[in-house]
C-alpha cells in the first residue's frame, strides 16, 4: 500500500503543479478552451492517445475481452478508430479552417440563430456528463483495490482531484500532460500484457487453451450481432467533440491532419492489448467476476507493488486525462453555446474565462452524480455513443456536403431523433435500436429539409468548401 501512496502522491502532485503553472499563463478564454489554435504535432498526438485511453480502454475493454473475447476489439475498438481516422482524413482540414471552438459552433455558423443549442445539450449532457462519470468510477475502483477505500470515498477524492487540475489548467495543461502520459499509458499496457501472457504460458498455450468463440473476430451471437454492435458505437466518432477540439487546437491544417492520423493509428494498435489481457484473464480469474473489476484484480494479483504501482499510475493517467477532456468539452458547450450566445453575447474575455472555469466545476459535479448510477462501463458508454451518434451524425454530414439541408430540417431531425431513440426500447419493435435510429434520423432529415425552405440566417454553402463564418460576415456586409 505504501508504494501506491507514494506513486499516487507524486503523480497527482505533479499534475496539480502543472495545472497551477498554466493558471498564471492563461490570460484569455481562447487560451483556456482551445489553446489559442496553436498546438503542435507531438502535443496533439499525445493528447489523442491519452484521451482515447480512458476508462473504456483500461477497464471497459479488458472486461469486454474477458466476457466476449477478441470480437470485442473488432466490434468496438477497431470500428471506433476506423471512424476516427475517417473524420481526420476527410474533415480535419475543412474543420480546422473554420477556426471554431465546439461542434455546436459549426451548426450555428451554418444555420445561424440558436440551432447549436441541441448539439450543445447533446454533447454536454448526454455525452460529457456520463462519460466523465465513467472516469470517476474507474478512479474510485483503483483507490478501492489499492488503498482499500470504499467506492464513495474514492468518488469524492477523485472529484476533488479532477477539479484541482482542470479548473486552473484548462486545455493547455491537459494537452501538455497528455503528451507525457501517453508514454506512461503505452508502457503500462505493454508491461501488463507481457506479464499476463507469460503467466498463462505464452501465446501458444493461451490460444490452445481458449475456445474458438473467444478468439474469433465474430461475436458468438453471429456476424449480424458484431455489425449491429459496431453500428451502435462507430458513427459517433465522426462527431466526438474531444477529437474536434484537438483538430481546432492544432496550429494549422497540416498538423490537424498528420497528428490526428498518427495518434489514432497508435491507439488503434495499443487498444488490442486490453482485449488480449481480458482473454488471458479467463485462464485464472473467476469467470463470475464483474467485468469492470478484472483489470484492477489482475494487476494487483500478478505484479509486485512497485511494478503494479506504475500500472495503476498509467490507469489513473488515462482516467484523469479522460475526465478533464470530457469536463472541458461540456464546459465549452455551456460557456460558448449557452452563456455567450444566449445570455451575454457581449461578454468580455475575462468574463468568459471565469464562466468557463465555473462550467468545468458544474460539469464535473454532474459527472459525479452520474457516476453513482453507473453499474457497467461498457453498457453506459455504448448507450451514450449511440444516442449522440443518432442525433448528430447525419446533420453534421449534411452541413459538410449537402447545400440543400435547411435549418428547420436539421432542427426537426435532431429533436425527432432524440425522442425516437429514447422511446424506441419501449415500443417492442424487433429491429436493432441503433439501426432503427440512424435510419429514422436520415429519412427525417432529408424529408424535412426538402419540405422546408432556407432561413434568411443560413449560409447556404457546404462547410467542405467554404469557411462559413467568413461567408456570413460577407453576406452581412453586402446587405
From TrEMBL:
It catalyses: L-proline(in) + Na(+)(in) = L-proline(out) + Na(+)(out). The gene is opuE. One of its GO terms (biological process) is sodium ion transport. One of its GO terms (cellular component) is plasma membrane. GO terms for molecular function: symporter activity. Its main location: membrane. Pfam families: SSF. Belongs to the sodium:solute symporter (SSF) (TC 2.A.21) family. It is a multi-pass membrane protein. Gene3D superfamilies: Sodium/glucose cotransporter. It comes from the Bacteria. This is Sodium:proline symporter. It comes from Oceanobacillus sojae. The chain crosses the membrane at residues 6-24, 44-66, 72-92, 124-145, 151-171, 183-202, 222-240, 261-285, 305-331, 352-374, 380-402, 409-427, 433-451. It is found in: Cell membrane. Keywords: Cell membrane, Ion transport, Membrane, Sodium, Sodium transport, Symport, Transmembrane, Transmembrane helix, Transport.
Amino acid at each position: 500500500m505504501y508504494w501506491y501512496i507514494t506513486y499516487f502522491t507524486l503523480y497527482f502532485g505533479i499534475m496539480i503543479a502543472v495545472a497551477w503553472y498554466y493558471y498564471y499563463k492563461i490570460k484569455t478564454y481562447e487560451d483556456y478552451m482551445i489553446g489559442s489554435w496553436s498546438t503542435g504535432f507531438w502535443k496533439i498526438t499525445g493528447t489523442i492517445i491519452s484521451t482515447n485511453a480512458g476508462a473504456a480502454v483500461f477497464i471497459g475493454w479488458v472486461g469486454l475481452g474477458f466476457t466476449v473475447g477478441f470480437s470485442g476489439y473488432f466490434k468496438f475498438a477497431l470500428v471506433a478508430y476506423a471512424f476516427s481516422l475517417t473524420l481526420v482524413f476527410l474533415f480535419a482540414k475543412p474543420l480546422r479552417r473554420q477556426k471554431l471552438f465546439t461542434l455546436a459552433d459549426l451548426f450555428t455558423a451554418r444555420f445561424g440563430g440558436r440551432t447549436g443549442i441541441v448539439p450543445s445539450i447533446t454533447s454536454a449532457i448526454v455525452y460529457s456528463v456520463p462519460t466523465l462519470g465513467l472516469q470517476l468510477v474507474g478512479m474510485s475502483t483503483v483507490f478501492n483495490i489499492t488503498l482499500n477505500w470504499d467506492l464513495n470515498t474514492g468518488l469524492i477524492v477523485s472529484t476533488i482531484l479532477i477539479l484541482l487540475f482542470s479548473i486552473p489548467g484548462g486545455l493547455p495543461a491537459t494537452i501538455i500532460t497528455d503528451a507525457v502520459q501517453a508514454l506512461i499509458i503505452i508502457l503500462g499496457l505493454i508491461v501488463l500484457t507481457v506479464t499476463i501472457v507469460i503467466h498463462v504460458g505464452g501465446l501458444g498455450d493461451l490460444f490452445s487453451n481458449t475456445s474458438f468463440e473467444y478468439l474469433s473476430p465474430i461475436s458468438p451471437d453471429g456476424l449480424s450481432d458484431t455489425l449491429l454492435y459496431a453500428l451502435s458505437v462507430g458513427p459517433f466518432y465522426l462527431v466526438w467533440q474531444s477529437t474536434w477540439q484537438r483538430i481546432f487546437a492544432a496550429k494549422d491544417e497540416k498538423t490537424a491532419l498528420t497528428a490526428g492520423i498518427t495518434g489514432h493509428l497508435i491507439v488503434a494498435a495499443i487498444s488490442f492489448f486490453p482485449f488480449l489481457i481480458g482473454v488471458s484473464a479467463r485462464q485464472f480469474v473467476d469467470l463470475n467476476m464483474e467485468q469492470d473489476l478484472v483489470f484492477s484484480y489482475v494487476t494487483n494479483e500478478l505484479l509486485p507493488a512497485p511494478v503494479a504501482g506504475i500500472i495503476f499510475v498509467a490507469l489513473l493517467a488515462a482516467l484523469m486525462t479522460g475526465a478533464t477532456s470530457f469536463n472541458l468539452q461540456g464546459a465549452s458547450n455551456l460557456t460558448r453555446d449557452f452563456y455567450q450566445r444566449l445570455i451575454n453575447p457581449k461578454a468580455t474575455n475575462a468574463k468568459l474565462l471565469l464562466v468557463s472555469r465555473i462550467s468545468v466545476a458544474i460539469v464535473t459535479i454532474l459527472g459525479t452524480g452520474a457516476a453513482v448510477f453507473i453499474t457497467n462501463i461498457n453498457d453506459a458508454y455504448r448507450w451514450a455513443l449511440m444516442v449522440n451518434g443518432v442525433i448528430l451524425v447525419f446533420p453534421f454530414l449534411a452541413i459538410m456536403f449537402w447545400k440543400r439541408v435547411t435549418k428547420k430540417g436539421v432542427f426537426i431531425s435532431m429533436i425527432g431523433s432524440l425522442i425516437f431513440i429514447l422511446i424506441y426500447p419501449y415500443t417492442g419493435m424487433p429491429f436493432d435500436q441503433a439501426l432503427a435510429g440512424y435510419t429514422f434520423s436520415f429519412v427525417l432529415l432529408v424529408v424535412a429539409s426538402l419540405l422546408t425552405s432556407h432561413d434568411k440566417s443560413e449560409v447556404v454553402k457546404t462547410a467542405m468548401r467554404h469557411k462559413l463564418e467568413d461567408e456570413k460576415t460577407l453576406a452581412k456586409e453586402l446587405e
